[in-house]
Amino acid sequence: MIEVIRHVYKLSGWWDQPDLGANVYLVVDGGKLTLIDTGYAHNFRLILGRIHRMGFLPSCVRHIIVTHHHPDHVGGLAALKQTTGAAVVAHADDVPYIEGALPQPGPCRPGWLRSASAPLVPLLRTAPVKVDIVVKGGEELPVAGGIRVLHTPGHTPGSICVFLRQRGLVMTGDLLAQRLGIRLPALSFTVDVGQVQDSVRKLAEEDFETACFGHGSPLVKNASKRVAEYARRLDHKKPF
Ligand SMILES: [Zn+2]
Ligand SMILES: [Zn+2]
Asked: What is the distance in A from the centroid of ligand 1 to the CA of 213?
C-alpha cells in the first residue's frame, strides 16, 4: 500500500500484477472512505484487511466508484458493497453490465482471440450489483471531499475519469495505463480505439497534478502536462 498524496492510498501494492486485477484506490475524507474500483473478486478480503489496519470499520466506506464494468475492476464489488453498505457510483452506459442485464463481453478483438476465448467468457462473469448513483459525466458530487466526473468512453461505453477537485488528482481507470510511460489500455479489451483517443484528448484539456491509473504506477507531478504530451503524440500516429 502506498500513500499517493495525502489521504489518497493505492491499496493494490504488492499484488499489483496485471493478472491479479486493477489498482484499487482509497480516499480518506475525515471518517468517510471512498473506494475507486475493487479488483477481482478474490481481492476483497485484502482490501478490507488494509482498511481494518488503517483503523477503519467496513461501514466507514460510504461510496465505491467504478471507473468501468470490466471484471478486474468490479470483481470485488458485490462482496464489498454487501460488507460495507456503500453506495455504488457508475456511468449509465456501463450500468447494464454491472447490474447483470448484459453479460461481460470478453475480448473485443482480434477476431481469432474473440472466438478462441468464447468458451472462457462465462468465467469473466461478475456478480450483478445495483448501481445507486448513476452518472453521465459533468457531475460534481459530495463524495470523497468533492469529485467531478468526466465521461471518457472508448475502452467501454461508460468509462469515466474521476477528479478529486480539491487535490488536483484524477483517477483515469483504463483510459490510460502507466507502465514504462503512459500508454493506451489493452486494445483486445477496448471497444472503440478511436473513441479512446478522443477521450485522451479530452482528458488532456484538464489541469491536474497527479494521475492514478487502473494499471501501473501513479504520476505524482506534472501529470496533466505529460498526458497532454502523450495526446499530442497520438495525433501523429495513424488510427488503429
Ligand atoms: Zn483494467
Ligand atoms: Zn478495462
From this structure: 9
Q: Domain spans of the chain?
A: 2-235
pLDDT reported for residue 193: 92
Q: Is 211:205 a contact under the CB 8 Å cutoff? A: no
Distance between Cα 155 and ligand 1 center (Å):
10
Report the separation in Å between the CA atom of 72 and the middle of ligand 1, taken as the mean of its atom positions. Answer: 5
CATH class of 2-235: alpha beta
Distance 170 CA to ligand 2 centre (A): 17
**Ligand 2 center–CA 31 separation, angstroms:** 30
Mean pLDDT per 10-residue section of the chain, whose length is 240 residues: 93 58 93 95 88 96 98 94 98 97 82 71 81 97 96 98 96 94 92 95 97 94 97 73
pLDDT in the model for residue 18: 47
Cα–Cα distance measured from residue 132 to residue 187, given in angstroms and rounded to the nearest whole number: 30
